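Repro:
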Amino acid sequence: MIDSNALAALFSALSEVPCRLAALERAEAENTAKLESVRVALPPVLASIPEAATAFKVSIPTMRRWVKRGDVPIVKVGNTVRVDLSRLHGKDAATIASQAAALTSQSVRTVPVAIKCPTK
């Protein structure tokens, strides 16, 4: 036998389905709109040197220097050079610390200094 209370609870839950489905559809539409606004705000995958400089918040000459040194990945399209932003990845803190330590050890020379301690 089917319990009438269980059957009533089932019908009550089923009656809420259209309302929940409508709420989910609204949330999906809002998320789609937010995602589209984020996509529009992202820089293009292949950027010109001025666009890449703007994306990295550096000057155009700095970006040209990075391109010349090979610090950023580029793609040549005809006579133009495009910076491939899709191949650029951030560095984690450990990588940055090790690179900073390597640069520091290369550029800083320790000079022995005689320290005179005060006598009592």
